[in-house]
Design goal:
Blueprint: H1 32-81, H2 84-105
Length: 106
């Protein structure tokens, strides 16, 4: 009988696959050669994924930039369409004119 997890994909007793076990890198006593090999493997993996990560970062940055510009443009558009302050100014001019008429003519 093979050792548990040694190539046996399904546990015969429960019918379930064995769970992956988390390995604590600080708990193991590795030789300097093993540590160097681990660092080389991590560096190779990082360099392999770097172009994909860079592309994702660029796409994300462009997406966020486009969203910011769209919000900025929409804000300018909606403020230019706003006539509320113009109406208040017109009413204030009319009120001043009426006040001047009352003060001078009445």
């Amino acid at each position: 009988m093979a050792a548990p997890g040694a190539g046996d994909p399904v546990n015969g007793k429960s019918g379930k696959a064995p769970l992956a076990q988390r390995i604590d890198p600080t708990g193991e006593k590795l030789t300097p050669t093993q540590l160097q090999f681990r660092r080389q493997a991590q560096l190779a993996q990082w360099q392999k994924m770097l172009p994909q990560r860079r592309t994702r970062n660029i796409v994300t940055g462009l997406g966020i930039g486009a969203l910011v510009l769209a919000i900025y443009a929409y804000t300018f558009y909606s403020v230019s369409q706003e006539r509320f302050l113009d109406e208040l100014e017109d009413e204030a001019k009319a009120a001043r004119a009426r006040a001047l008429e009352r003060a001078s003519g009445h």
